[in-house]
Specification:
It contains 14 helices and nine strands. The protein is of the alpha/beta class. The protein folds into two domains: 160 residues, Rossmann fold, CATH 3.40.50; 118 residues, N-(1-d-carboxylethyl)-l-norvaline Dehydrogenase, domain 2 (Orthogonal Bundle), CATH 1.10.1040.10. It has a six-stranded parallel beta sheet with strand order 3-2-1-4-5-6, with helices on both faces. The model has no long low-confidence stretch (mean pLDDT 96).
């Protein structure tokens, strides 16, 4: 535990590919951890290490000073926060609520308002870095909310990430995550097409990665997902179905702003075709399957 961080009662809801690792870092740092996940077996390892299982998100909130959520879709976020018996209803005054799901900016603002009315603080704090960043506690964390609440959360967030930035008021963390996903969307298409080109040209793709991975084309999508693509490793660091959700949110927000983003629309169309082929539970790097037929 960092010197400035005091032991806290922290609740964590959502123990998927990333959430389980993130929660594990909090437990390892000495915090008292309460957990909930729709599939209880995903909590077994954390419970064996000392975490306390709760039967609902509301129960998690009732016993926690800080509640962190990392679930799938905006509908899930709305349900666990604003539903009857949910997090906002059962949290005690003064509880800090931190949603790290990629969700909609408007929902983040609604949750922040409901939390204020309850006497609680709320931050929207989506992350980037995938399964690797979650395991290695070096996620980028994009935060929207009150500056004082951000400072209160910072020691906890620092146990999960290394690049932690407050962007503004409620919803701005989600807007920034949309910027992140827009950049990734066209980048992964470029990586995929570059590797398909290399293969068709008779080049060794691994050698191509070695040649271009240290230049202007370098980045996570090329240097981390590129080798997975070459090796036929399509296990999800981030599910295609969740990426599609994010791209849909981004396109909807762009439309409201009067923006035309053709690269984003193209990427969403390609991934929609993947989902229609039953590949929504593959990782985003599986896009190459579409090009290879």
């Amino acid at each position: 535990m960092t010197p400035s961080a005091q032991p806290l009662r922290i609740g964590f809801v959502g123990l998927g590919i990333m959430g389980r690792s993130m929660a594990g870092h909090l437990l390892a740092a000495g915090h008292e951890l309460r957990v909930y996940n729709r599939s209880r077996d995903k909590a077994d390892e954390l419970v064996a290490r000392g975490a306390r299982w709760c039967d609902s998100p509301g129960e998690v909130a009732a016993g926690s000073e800080v509640v962190i959520t990392m679930v799938g879709y905006p509908a899930d976020v709305e349900h666990i926060y604003l539903g009857a018996g949910g997090i906002v209803e059962r949290a005690a005054a003064g509880t800090l609520l931190v949603d790290m799901t990629t969700s909609s900016p408007s929902l983040a603002r609604r949750i922040a308002q409901a939390a204020r009315e309850r006497g609680c603080g709320a931050l929207d704090a989506p992350v980037s870095g995938g399964d690797v960043g979650a395991r290695e506690a070096r996620l980028s964390i994009m935060v929207g909310g009150d500056a004082a609440e951000f400072e209160r959360a910072r020691p906890v967030l620092a146990l999960m990430g290394t690049n932690i930035v407050l962007l503004g008021g409620p919803g701005t963390g989600q807007h920034t995550k949309m910027c992140n996903q827009i950049v990734i969307a066209s980048t992964i298409v470029g990586v995929t097409e570059g590797l398909v080109y290399a293969q068709r040209a008779g080049l060794d793709p691994a050698t191509v990665l070695q040649a271009i991975g240290g230049g202007a084309a370098s980045g996570f999508q090329l240097n981390v997902l590129g080798p997975r693509i070459i090796g036929g490793d399509f296990a999800p660091g981030f599910f295609i179905e969740h990426f599609l959700k994010d791209l849909g949110i981004a396109l909807g927000e762009a439309e409201q702003m009067g923006l035309d983003l053709p690269g984003l629309a193209l990427a969403r169309g390609l991934y929609q075709r993947m989902a229609e082929k039953g590949l929504g539970r593959d990782g985003t790097q599986a896009l190459i399957k579409l090009y290879q037929g």
